[in-house]
Write a structure and sequence with these properties.
By secondary structure, the chain is an alpha+beta fold. The protein has five helices and seven strands; from the N terminus they run E-H-H-H-E-E-E-E-E-E-H-H. A hairpin with a 2-residue loop joins strand 3 and strand 4. It is globular and about 45 Å long.
């Protein structure tokens, strides 16, 4: 399968700057919320209006949106006060590159990125998790909208 290049879309929506900002704003490792409150997480995800599935064995949430011939997948590991977002996009039978964990994507784009400093966002409260998820979903929506509109112009 051939990979389609997602780099131009990611640059257009300022993916790296936006993700760095999330990591800068939410990086209190010592005070992160260590216990997992599934009810709270489920209510938060539902409040954003996404359909999702929780995979208990692997301990992650998966959101799948199908638009035209695109399949947009956002996986979220929400554990020990840390948010680990992963992105995967398929068009027909081809996948878009770069994909995977948000903090690995800049390097795959060929951009120097300090993963030690901008790793994964951490939350110490429900309010912080809500803000982090809101920003991640905003990035996800911008990727979807940009990619679908770009393909429709081809």
């Amino acid at each position: 399968m051939n990979n389609n290049d997602l780099t131009a879309v990611l640059m257009d929506i300022r993916f790296i700057d936006r993700y760095k900002k999330i990591c800068e704003d939410y990086n209190d490792f010592d005070n992160r919320l260590r216990e997992v409150d599934f009810d709270m997480i489920n209510k938060l995800l539902e409040s954003f209006g996404y359909d999702y599935t929780y995979y208990s064995k692997e301990q992650f949430y998966k959101l799948v949106n199908e638009i035209d011939e695109f399949t947009f997948i956002l996986q979220l590991v929400l554990k020990d006060g840390i948010v680990e977002p992963l992105l995967n996009i398929k068009f027909q039978e081809n996948y878009y590159y770069p994909y995977g964990r948000f903090d690995f994507i800049p390097k795959k784009m060929g951009v120097d990125f300090d993963r030690k400093r901008y790793n994964l966002p951490k939350y110490s409260s429900e309010q912080e998790l809500e803000k982090i998820l809101g920003q991640i979903f905003s990035i996800f929506e911008d990727i979807k909208n940009n990619l679908v509109s770009t393909k429709s112009q081809d």
